[in-house]
Amino acid sequence: MKFWRFIASGFGSGLAPKAPGTFGSLVGLLLGCLLLTVGHIALLTGIVVASAVGLYAIGQLPEAENDPSWVVIDEIAGQMIPLLALYEVSFWGALLSFGLFRLFDIWKPGPVGWADKRKDEIGIMGDDIIAGLLAWLVMLVLHLVSPL
């Protein structure tokens, strides 16, 4: 497997025969939780790096511009975003982060759907970044009710 395809496929997680986006999201959740144990700056850096590398990797693969299901670097970057709302890694916080991100990624409300209609690297990465931001906002609102 070529290097940029390996990166775009989320280190191979996007090659899962069923639910590749979910497997990519799980990689993002694991990576994000590991970075959060170091701190929020490490997690934010990971999000920026995954997003930039994802944009570049997709741009290097002409076949990736049609947003095939095996491209999951976007899910990895997007899944890490709602973890920024956690004070520290917790099972319930990670589960909520995962569930909200997948909900917005699959449902594609408003700006998520708009970005998804673009079939270039900005659209491929953008819909998941926006889904991650929406999940992050919901988690911030939930902080008003209960600590996560």
TrEMBL record:
GO cellular component entries: plasma membrane
Pathway this chain belongs to: Phospholipid metabolism; phosphatidylglycerol biosynthesis; phosphatidylglycerol from CDP-diacylglycerol: step 2/2
Presence of keyword Lipid metabolism: yes
Record's bilayer topology term: Multi-pass membrane protein
Main subcellular localisation: membrane
Keywords noted in UniProt: Cell inner membrane, Cell membrane, Hydrolase, Lipid degradation, Lipid metabolism, Magnesium, Membrane, Metal-binding, Phospholipid degradation, Phospholipid metabolism, Transmembrane, Transmembrane helix
Biological process, per Gene Ontology: phosphatidylglycerol biosynthetic process; phospholipid catabolic process
Protein's cellular compartments: Cell inner membrane
Record-listed E.C. numbers: 3.1.3.27
The keyword DNA repair appears for this protein: no
Taxonomy, superkingdom: Bacteria
The protein's name: Phosphatidylglycerophosphatase A
UniProt organism field: Acidocella aminolytica 101 = DSM 11237
Organism classification: Bacteria, Pseudomonadati, Pseudomonadota, Alphaproteobacteria, Acetobacterales
